[in-house]
């Protein structure tokens, strides 16, 4: 099998997890390859996501590494054998790969937790809001690059609107809701969209008001996707134009704690809806 030229983040993650299992077993790549009648080069390609791996080989590797976590093994097998070509493939060759990787991550997530103190979270943005955010980039994007970004962001809504929609919880600061990235009409439409989405049983929006006590995280923004097992969770410092995925267990634990801290000072969902309603009426 020819090596992949551009593995997806999901494929890279699978290889990284297999490497973690090998490291935990105290085995070198050469030793593992020898037990599989393979080569160090082939093992390196698998662990870097450049080469696919079969279910049989994933299970053999897990056995060689004395991994007894059946849920983790099954999750790795699912990653190795999944052949999903989701809607994001329409944007391959049009948008940077990070956009596609984010969509694929959201597609497979068990839950999504977001903290935003700068912009409305992408899944909750209106088309005009998204266009204004992307249009503010320096240097400015030509229409041939801006419009696909907006279209992609609108398509991301499917993760909360589809059948078997993901559980989505966003904590946003009042400054996010009050900042007008466009005009008054667009700001009102954006608040209405947040309220519309928050009516879904799977969507929770919480607000941190300006006057809340005990919130020192004004620069806190994060995106957290729950994997099929906790070891496969993924986090990133959320930003309007992307950011690297983080998956070290220490990093994941820190982000889980951060979300609980921020959530604890936010209004409950019902009070948050009332808060946003009042803001919308003021516009």
Number of helices: 13
How large is the radius of gyration?
A: 21 Å
- Uncertain parts: none
Oligomeric organization of the protein chains = single chain
Supply the helix-strand structural class: alpha/beta
Widest sheet: strand ordering: 3-2-1-4-5
**Beta-strand percent range:** 5-15%
Distance, first to last CA: 59 Å
Q: How many strand units?
A: 5
Write down the overall mean pLDDT. 95
Form type: elongated
Largest sheet: 5 strands, mixed
DSSP helix fraction: 40-55%
H-E string? HHHHHHEHHHEHHEEEHH
Give descriptors for this structure.
283 residues, alpha/beta, five-stranded mixed beta sheet, elongated
What does this structure look like?
α2 packs across α3, α4 (55-64) runs antiparallel to α5 (70-81) and α7 (127-135) crosses α8. The longest helix has 16 residues, at 9-24. Helices cover 50% and strands 10% of the residues. A 5-stranded mixed β-sheet has the order 3-2-1-4-5, sandwiched between helices. It is elongated, with a radius of gyration of 21 Å. It has helices at residues 9-24, 29-35, 40-47, 55-64, 70-81, 97-108, 127-135, 143-155, 158-161, 174-178, 184-198, 249-264, 269-282; strands at residues 111-116, 167-173, 203-208, 222-226, 234-236. With 283 residues, the protein is of the alpha/beta class. It is built from 13 helices and 5 strands.
